[in-house]
Known about the structure:
Bound molecules: nicotinamide-adenine-dinucleotide
Strand order of the largest sheet: 3-4-2-1-5-6-7-12
CATH superfamily of the largest domain: NAD(P)-binding Rossmann-like Domain
Distance between the termini: 34 Å
Mean pLDDT: 96
Helix content: 40-55%
Amino acid sequence: xxxxxxxxxxxxxxxxxxxxxxxEGQRVRVxxxxxxxxxxxxxxxxxxxxxxxxxxxxxxSAPLALCEANILDYEAVVSALVGADVVIHLAAxxxxxxxxxxxxxxxxxxxxxxxxxxxACRHAGxxxxxxASSGAPLGVQTPPLHEDMAxxxxxxxxASKLAGEGYCSxxxxxxxxxxxxxxxxxxxxxxxxxxxxxxxxxxKQALAGERLEIFGDGSQTRDFIxxxxxxxxxxxxxxxxxVGGETFQIATAHETAVAEMTDALVAVMQAExxxxxxxxxxxxxxxxxxxNYSDATKAAERLDWRAEVGLQDGLRRTLHYFLNQKNQ
Length: 328
Ligand SMILES: NC(=O)c1ccc[n+]([C@@H]2O[C@H](COP(=O)([O-])OP(=O)(O)OC[C@H]3O[C@@H](n4cnc5c(N)ncnc54)[C@H](O)[C@@H]3O)[C@@H](O)[C@H]2O)c1
């Protein structure tokens, strides 16, 4: 299969590319503007060839290729995805914070960028597009989050991801592009060195000998999903028949308090013979969601997918990754 991964130099994209290339017969083309991910990051996946932007009908000969382009450049997008069997659309403004600072830039990347990808799929005859969404479109809700809830986004990021979901639905019903929307939980794991999410941040701080600050009393809950489970879900949603136009919560369905995750991380560090970091409770953050986890029943029923990596195991794997990086 020919896979076009937008944002393929990033955390999730690289993990997906590595997993795909471990199977024979898969070719991966990455479209990334290198605003966050780098060529050196992609080299960690394997050797790659570089595709010049707007090359007419470039061949899918190399197992891994990079097309350095912006998803907002429609011509570049069309030329990059001719011949793709599936598009995994990960490139985005990825956080609530930047969306609050600059809602226009967030809208450009997440709404216009997604519309570009869908329109290019329609014209290039690409059958399926998997869209990376999150819990943010649902906004403030009483968990567990599930697919039947009415969305009430509470940030520009949630609004732009919701608009992306809306265009996915429209392109399925109007133009027959088989779109699949995946709403990821809090993803953590190997390859997350540049992320500011809580697991990556705490491990980096602990290895630097710094104290870990929990915002508030740590009773706020999250659904921590390991990257290996997430990548399996993306792949399943790209290959499974009959799920065009559908939305799935992709999460563990376990509600874990941030304090509980921190205790587990400290225990994992001690088991590895490392000094346990000091942990303290700072001020609560305005707008921090108190409880957040998802019901993943629909993904189990329709995609035959369930999260398998337990938190302890996932934290241990993630810690090993950071230790290896530090020792290199
Ligand atoms: N990591 C999580 O916990 C999480 C949770 C929910 C949803 N998501 C979604 O998953 C997707 C991937 O997240 P990630 O954690 O891998 O992010 P990441 O920042 O590690 O990777 C994103 C990649 O996209 C590229 N990119 C950004 N804007 C671009 C543009 N305009 N054109 C081309 N490339 C561009 C960046 O250079 C980067 O390599 C995003 O859509 C994000 O919103 C992530």
